[in-house]
Amino acid sequence: MGRLRALSRLSRPERLRGSPDTLLKSAGQTAGFDSPEESVICLLVQLPTTPRKSPESDMAVKTRFAPSPTGFLHIGGVRTALFAWLYARRHGGTFVLRIEDTDRERSTEEAIQVILDGLEWLKLRPDEGPLYQTDRFPRYREVVDQLLASGRAYKCYCPREELDEMRAAQRARGEKPRYDGRCRDRTEPRQGVDPVIRFRTPDEGETVVDDVIHGHVSFQNSELDDLIMVRSDGVPTYNFSVVVDDMDMGITHVIRGDDHLNNSPRQVNIYHALGAEPPRFAHVPMILGPDGAKLSKRHGAVSVLEYRQEGYMPEALLNFLVRLGWSHGDQEIFSVDEMIELFDLADVNKAASSFNPEKLLWLNQQYIMKATPECLGLDLWWQLERLSVDTTGGPETKAVAEAFRQRAQTLHEMAQSALFFYQDFDTYHEKAAKKHLTPSVLEALQRVHDGLMCLEHWQAGPIHEVILGAAEALDLKLGKVAQPIRVAVSGGPVSPPIDVTLELLGRQKTMERIERAIAYVTERAAAA
Question: What is the pTM of this model?
Answer without folding.
Answer: 0.86
